[in-house]
C-alpha cells in the first residue's frame, strides 16, 4: 500500500511536470493557480473529542496546505488540486487531457472516521486478532483495563483514462483501491441469552476493495451504445477475532468477520435519440455475480467449563453465489409541443445459489454443564431470492406558459423467497401542478398515493393456541407488509423584490400498515423548510434558513416473560394482561430543527468576510402504553432523551488580498456539541460480578465537545 | 376589389407572422439579423468578466475543436449579437439570448447546451431522467461564466470544514432542501466535510434507476463502497438482502449508524417473541440509578450481542443464525 501511494504521488508529480513540459512546447499553454500554507490551532474541551474529529483531522493541529493549479492551452488542459497534504484527510486530484482526444484522472482521497477516543477494555492485544482478558474474570477494576481509540482510516486511490480521439467511439478504464484500517466496536453475546453477558470488543478492520472497469462505446448526437465489464474484489486481512469468553470458563471463542468476496458485472447500455415525436429510447442490461468460498465453521465454544461443541455441517464448504440481473427500458417522447411522456419498464432478478448448509446436533466434547441444547438445524429456506417487474407512465402537460400538470402511474410486483411474505404488489399514482401565474411566485404542489398489498404466508394460528407459533402469525414486518401511503408536497419560491429570494417547502408522508397484529402500525413524517436570501454576491449577500422535522413510528408488541406461552401467560395480544404477559404500544417520536444564517461581505476592495452561524437540535422520545389495568414492576417508563443533541457552530473567515500575488486568509470557528441519551446516562463499563458480567467499552458514549479553531493561511497566486 | 386587397393583405401578414412565429418556436437562436456576429473582443466592451471567464474555460480554447472557440464564439450560445451591439446593448435587445434566463423555457435552455454536448456519454440518459422531467436545465446547476463549473449563489452555512473546495451539495441544496437538512444531522455520510459528493451516488444528468442512482439497485450502490456487507452469507438477514433503506436513512439521521429509528425499537418493529425480543425497554432500564439495567437498552442495545446484523457465517452451534457471532 505504501509503495502504491508513493508510486501514485510520483506519477502525479511526474504527470504535472511532464504535461507542463510537453504542452509548454506548444507555446500557448499557460499555468496558473495558487499554493497556500498555513497554521491551525485548536483548543477543545471534551469528554471524548471523537465527534469533533469524526471526519476531520483536527488532531494534528499544525501545518495546513493547499495547491490549486490550472493549465490551459490550445490542445491540452490540466487541473490539479491538493489539500491537507500529509494529514489523514488529504485530498489530491489531478485531471487533464487533450481536447477531444483523451482525458485522464488520478486521485487520492483520504478520510479518517473516528468513532471513540479513550475507550476501555478488560482485554489485551488490542489491534490484533487475539484478545486475552486481564484475568481473573469477572474483572471490574478499570485501572487494569486497556485504553485505546476506535476509528479507521480510509483511503481511496484511483485513476481513469478515456480515449476518444474526436471519434464517436471511445474506450475508458477506471481503477481504484479502497482500504479501511482500524478498530470498530463489535458486540458479541457470551452465552446464549442476554443474562449470560455480552462483550463490546475492539475488532480489527483491515479491508481492501479493488475495482476495475473497462468500458467501450459509441456516443453521438443520435445515439449511444456501450458495454462495460467490472471486476471488484473485497478482501479482509483479518478473517476472525479470537477472544477469551468469561462465561465459558475463559475459553477462547471465535467471531467470524466479514468474508472476502468477488463481484463481476457486465453492463450494456443503448440509447436511440431523435426518433419520431421527439422520442428517445433507452435501454440498460446488467448481469452481476457475487461469489465467495470458505470452510464452514463447525466448532463453537460452549459449556461453562469452556468446552467445544461441534455441530457438523453439510456440506463442509460454503460456496457463496448470488446473481443479479436487470433490464430497464425507457421511451421518452414529446408527441405534441405541450405534452411530454415517459413509459418505462424495469425487471430485476436476484438468484441466491449459495450452498444451503444444514447443521447436525451439537456434541459436547469438553467438561461443562451448559444447559442449552444444540439442535439440528436444516438449511435456511429463506434464501431471499426475488423477481421484480415494474412498469410505469409519466405524463407532463403544459396547460399554458404558467401552468404545467404532471401525473403518473407506477406498478411494481415483487416475488420473493421469504417465509412471511412471498409476493407484493405496489401501485403508485401521483399528480403535480407547477404554477407561475403570479409574478415572482412559483408554486409546485404534488400529491402521491402508494398502495402495497402483500401475500402473507404464515399459517393461521388461533388465539387459543398457546404455542409460540402465534408470534409467527401475528407479526407483520413493515419492510414487506401491506400498507397505504399518502404524501403531499408543497414548494413556494418567491422573488418579491430584486435580489430577494424566499422559499418555503413542506412535505407530509404517512404510512398505515394493514392487517398488523404485532409490529409497526404506522409512521408519519412532517417536514418544513424556509429560506431567505438577499443581496448581490458582488456586494453583500446574506442567507438564512430554518428547518423543522417530526417523525413518529407507532408499533404494537406483546410481552411474554417466560420461554413458552400458556393459557394464562398468553401470546395472544387480545388476552387479558397479567404481570407476565401484556400487550404494549409505542410512539417513537423524533424531532429535529435547525436555524442558520450566513453572509458573504466584500467589506473593502481587498477584504472579503464570510461568516455563518448554525444552531441544530435533535430530540427523541418514546411513549409507552400498556394494555393493563394494573401496573407491574416491569412496565416501561417513557423515554425523554433518545439521541438528543444540541449543536452551535459559528464560523468567521476573512480573505485579504495583499497584492496580486498574495492572499491572506484568517479564520475562527467555535463549535459546541452536547448529547444526552437515557441509554448512556450514567454509563458503566462493567455490569455484574459473576461470569455473566457484561463489558462495554464506552463506544459512542460521550461525544460532548466545545472547540475553538483558529487558522491562518498565506496563498501565493501565479 | 377593395375586399380582395384587404384579404390579400391580411393573408400576407398572417403568413409572414406564421413563418416568423414558427421560426421563433423551432429555433432557439431566432433568425439572425443582417451583420456577422461580433467576436469576444467586442462583447468584452460591456461584459468583461463573462468574456474573461469564457476565455479561461474549456469553451474558450481553440484546441477544443468542437467548442465555441472554433464555431461562433459568444454567438454560439447567445445568438448573433450584431443588432444587440448596434442598439447599444440591453437585456434581450437585438434578439440577444441569455440561455441562463428563467424566461427562456427549460427545454430551450438545455437545447443550447445539447447542441454541442448531446454526444457526451454522461448525458446519454438525460431524456430519461427526473431533472429533465421537472424542467431543470443545465444552467440551473452549471455556471458557464463563473469561476467554478457549479453554481453557488448563497453563503455557506456549515461547521468548520478542512476543505477549501466548493462543495457540490451546496448547488444541489438550492432545490433539494429536504435532503440537505438530512445531511446536517449528527449521523451522516461525510458530505458536508467534502469527502463524498451527491454525484458519488446519484447521476444528476439522468439515469434509468429510481432516484437517478448510479447503480441498478440500492444494495448494489451501497455495497460498492461498503463491500464488507456484500456477503454472501450462510445466515442472511432478510431486510438486508431486500433493501438497505429498510433500516437506514441514507442521507442522515439523528440516530447512530444512519438508523431510521434507535435500537432496540427499530429491531422490535419486526421482532416480537417471548422474553427479551418482546420486552419493552423504557427509561427505567438505563444505567443506575435507573432501576433495572437492561443490556438490550443501554449503550448499543441489541447490537451489543447481535452485532453481525448484516449476515453471519458462524456455526449454528455458535448461534450464527441469531447474528451473535
Written description of the protein model:
- The complex is a heterodimer of chains A (718) and B (325).
- By secondary structure, chain A is mainly beta.
- Chain A has two helices and 37 strands.
- Chain A has helices spanning 2-24, 469-474; strands spanning 30-46, 63-72, 76-83, 91-98, 102-121, 123-124, 130-133, 146-163, 169-189, 198-219, 223-236, 240-245, 251-256, 261-275, 279-295, 299-302, 307-310, 313-314, 317-336, 339-352, 358-359, 363-364, 386-400, 403-416, 421-435, 441-456, 483-497, 500-513, 519-536, 540-560, 581-602, 607-626, 644-657, 662-676, 686-687, 694-695, 705-717.
- Chain A has a 26-stranded antiparallel beta barrel. A four-stranded mixed β-sheet of chain A has the order 6-7-12-13, with no helix packed on it. A three-stranded antiparallel β-sheet of chain A has the order 16-17-22, with no helix packed on it.
- In chain A, a hairpin with a 2-residue loop joins β27 (483-497) and β28.
- With 325 residues, chain B is an all-alpha fold.
- Among the domains of chain B are: 47-61 and 100-212, no CATH class; 229-322, no CATH class.
- Chain B is built from 13 helices and no strands.
- Chain B has helices at 2-26, 40-43, 48-56, 75-78, 82-86, 106-117, 130-133, 138-141, 169-172, 177-183, 218-225, 238-242, 265-268.
- Chain B is elongated and about 85 Å long.
- The model of chain B is unreliable at 9-33 (pLDDT under 50).
- Chains A and B meet through β2, β3, β5, β9 and β10 of A and α10, α11 and α12 of B.
Amino acid at each position: 500500500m505504501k509503495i502504491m501511494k508513493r508510486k501514485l504521488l510520483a506519477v502525479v508529480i511526474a504527470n504535472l511536470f511532464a504535461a507542463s513540459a510537453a504542452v509548454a512546447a506548444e507555446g500557448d499553454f499557460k499555468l496558473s493557480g495558487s499554493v497556500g500554507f498555513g497554521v491551525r490551532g485548536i483548543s477543545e474541551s471534551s469528554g471524548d473529542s471523537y465527534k469533533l474529529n469524526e471526519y476531520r483531522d483536527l488532531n494534528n493541529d499544525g501545518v495546513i496546505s493547499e495547491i490549486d493549479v490550472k493549465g490551459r492551452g490550445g490542445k491540452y488542459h490540466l487541473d490539479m488540486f491538493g489539500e491537507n497534504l500529509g494529514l489523514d484527510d488529504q485530498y489530491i486530484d489531478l485531471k487533464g487531457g487533450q481536447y477531444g482526444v483523451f482525458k485522464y484522472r488520478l486521485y487520492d482521497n483520504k478520510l479518517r472516521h473516528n468513532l471513540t477516543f479513550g475507550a476501555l477494555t478488560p482485554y489485551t492485544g488490542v489491534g490484533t486478532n487475539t484478545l486475552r482478558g486481564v484475568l481473573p474474570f469477572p474483572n471490574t477494576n478499570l485501572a487494569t483495563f486497556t485504553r485505546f481509540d476506535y476509528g479507521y482510516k480510509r483511503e481511496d486511490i484511483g485513476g481513469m483514462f478515456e480515449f476518444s480521439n474526436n471519434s464517436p467511439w471511445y474506450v475508458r478504464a477506471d481503477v481504484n483501491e479502497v482500504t479501511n484500517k482500524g478498530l470498530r466496536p463489535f458486540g458479541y453475546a457470551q452465552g446464549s441469552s442476554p443474562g449470560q453477558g455480552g462483550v463490546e470488543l475492539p475488532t480489527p478492520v483491515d479491508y481492501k476493495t479493488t475495482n476495475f472497469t473497462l468500458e467501450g462505446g459509441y456516443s453521438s448526437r443520435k445515439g449511444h451504445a456501450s458495454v462495460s465489464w467490472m471486476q471488484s474484489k473485497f478482501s479482509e486481512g483479518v478473517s476472525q477475532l479470537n477472544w477469551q469468553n468469561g462465561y465459558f470458563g475463559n475459553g477462547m471463542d471465535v467471531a467470524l468477520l466479514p468474508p472476502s468476496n468477488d463481484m463481476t458485472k457486465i453492463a450494456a447500455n443503448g440509447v436511440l435519440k431523435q426518433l419520431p415525436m421527439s422520442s428517445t429510447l433507452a435501454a440498460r442490461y446488467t448481469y452481476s455475480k457475487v461469489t465467495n468460498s470458505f470452510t464452514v465453521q463447525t466448532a463453537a465454544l460452549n459449556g461453562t467449563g469452556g468446552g467445544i461443541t461441534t455441530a457438523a455441517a453439510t456440506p463442509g464448504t460454503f460456496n457463496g453465489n448470488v446473481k443479479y440481473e436487470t433490464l430497464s427500458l425507457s421511451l421518452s417522447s414529446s408527441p405534441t409541443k405541450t405534452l411530454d411522456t415517459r413509459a418505462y419498464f424495469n425487471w430485476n432478478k436476484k438468484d441466491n445459489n449459495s450452498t444451503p448448509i444444514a447443521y447436525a446436533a451439537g456434541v459436547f466434547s469438553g467438561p461443562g454443564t451448559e444447559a442449552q441444547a444444540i439442535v439440528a438445524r436444516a438449511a435456511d429456506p429463506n434464501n431471499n431470492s426475488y423477481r421484480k417487474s415494474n412498469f410505469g407512465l409519466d405524463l407532463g402537460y403544459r396547460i399554458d406558459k404558467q401552468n404545467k400538470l404532471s401525473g403518473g402511474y407506477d406498478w411494481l410486483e415483487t416475488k420473493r423467497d421469504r417465509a412471511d411474505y412471498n409476493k407484493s404488489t405496489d401501485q403508485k399514482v401521483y399528480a403535480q401542478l407547477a404554477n407561475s401565474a403570479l409574478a415572482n411566485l412559483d408554486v409546485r404542489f404534488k400529491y402521491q398515493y402508494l398502495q402495497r398489498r402483500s401475500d402473507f404466508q404464515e399459517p393461521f394460528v388461533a388465539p387459543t393456541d398457546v404455542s409460540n407459533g402465534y408470534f409467527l402469525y401475528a407479526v407483520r414486518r413493515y419492510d414487506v407488509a401491506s400498507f397505504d401511503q399518502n404524501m403531499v408536497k408543497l414548494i413556494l419560491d418567491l422573488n418579491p423584490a430584486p435580489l430577494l429570494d424566499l422559499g418555503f417547502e413542506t412535505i407530509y408522508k404517512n404510512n398505515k400498515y394493514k392487517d398488523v397484529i404485532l409490529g409497526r402500525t404506522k409512521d408519519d413524517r412532517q417536514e418544513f423548510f424556509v429560506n431567505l436570501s438577499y443581496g448581490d454576491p458582488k456586494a453583500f449577500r446574506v442567507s438564512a434558513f430554518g428547518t423543522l422535522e417530526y417523525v413518529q413510528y407507532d408499533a404494537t408488541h406483546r410481552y411474554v416473560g417466560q420461554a413458552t406461552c400458556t393459557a394464562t401467560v398468553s401470546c395472544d395480544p387480545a388476552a387479558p394482561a397479567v404481570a407476565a404477559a401484556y400487550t404494549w404500544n409505542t410512539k417513537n417520536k423524533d424531532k429535529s430543527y435547525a436555524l442558520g444564517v450566513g453572509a458573504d461581505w466584500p467589506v473593502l476592495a481587498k477584504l472579503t468576510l464570510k461568516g455563518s452561524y448554525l444552531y441544530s437540535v435533535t430530540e427523541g422520545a418514546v411513549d409507552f402504553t400498556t394494555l393493563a389495568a394494573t401496573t407491574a414492576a416491569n412496565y416501561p417508563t417513557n423515554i425523554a432523551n433518545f439521541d438528543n443533541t444540541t449543536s452551535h457552530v459559528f464560523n468567521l473567515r476573512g480573505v485579504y488580498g495583499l497584492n496580486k500575488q498574495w492572499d491572506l486568509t484568517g479564520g475562527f470557528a467555535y463549535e459546541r456539541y452536547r448529547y444526552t441519551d437515557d441509554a448512556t446516562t450514567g454509563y458503566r463499563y462493567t455490569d455484574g460480578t459473576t461470569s455473566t458480567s457484561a463489558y462495554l467499552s464506552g463506544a459512542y458514549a460521550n461525544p460532548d465537545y466545545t472547540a475553538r479553531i483558529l487558522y491562518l493561511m498565506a496563498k501565493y497566486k501565479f | 376589389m377593395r375586399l380582395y386587397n384587404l384579404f390579400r393583405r391580411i393573408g400576407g401578414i398572417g403568413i409572414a407572422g406564421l413563418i416568423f412565429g414558427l421560426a421563433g418556436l423551432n429555433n432557439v437562436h431566432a433568425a439572425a439579423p443582417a451583420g456577422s456576429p461580433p467576436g469576444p473582443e467586442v462583447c468584452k466592451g460591456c461584459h468583461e468578466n463573462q468574456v474573461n471567464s469564457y476565455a479561461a474555460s474549456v469553451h474558450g480554447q481553440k484546441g477544443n475543436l468542437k467548442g465555441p472557440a472554433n464555431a461562433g464564439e459568444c454567438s454560439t450560445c447567445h445568438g448573433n449579437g450584431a443588432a444587440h451591439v448596434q442598439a447599444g446593448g440591453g437585456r434581450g435587445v437585438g434578439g440577444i439570448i441569455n440561455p441562463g434566463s428563467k424566461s427562456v423555457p427549460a427545454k430551450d435552455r438545455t437545447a443550447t447546451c445539447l447542441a454541442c454536448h448531446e454526444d457526451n456519454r454522461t448525458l446519454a440518459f438525460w431524456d430519461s431522467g427526473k431533472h429533465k422531467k421537472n424542467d431543470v436545465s443545465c444552467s440551473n446547476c452549471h455556471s458557464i461564466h463563473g469561476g467554478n463549473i457549479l453554481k453557488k449563489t448563497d453563503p455557506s452555512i456549515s461547521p468548520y470544514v478542512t476543505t477549501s473546495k466548493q462543495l457540490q451539495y451546496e448547488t444541489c441544496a438550492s432545490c433539494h432542501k429536504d435532503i440537505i437538512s438530512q445531511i446536517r444531522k449528527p449521523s451522516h455520510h461525510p458530505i458536508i466535510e467534502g469527502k463524498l459528493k451527491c454525484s458519488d451516488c446519484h447521476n444528476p444528468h439522468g439515469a434509468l434507476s429510481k432516484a437517478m442512482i448510479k447503480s441498478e439497485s440500492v444494495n448494489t450502490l451501497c455495497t460498492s463502497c461498503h463491500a464488507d456487507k456484500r456477503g454472501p452469507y450462510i445466515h442472511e438477514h432478510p431486510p438486508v438482502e431486500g433493501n438497505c433503506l429498510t433500516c437506514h436513512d441514507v442521507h442522515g439521521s439523528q440516530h447512530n449508524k444512519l438508523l431510521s429509528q434507535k435500537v432496540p425499537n427499530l429491531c422490535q418493529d419486526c421482532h416480537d417473541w417471548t422474553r427479551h425480543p418482546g420486552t419493552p425497554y423504557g427509561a427505567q432500564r438505563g444505567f443506575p440509578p435507573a432501576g433495572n439495567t437492561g443490556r438490550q437498552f443501554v449503550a448499543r442495545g441489541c447490537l451489543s450481542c447481535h452485532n453481525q446484523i448484516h449476515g453471519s457465517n458462524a456455526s449454528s452451534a455458535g448461534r450464527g443464525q441469531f447474528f451473535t457471532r
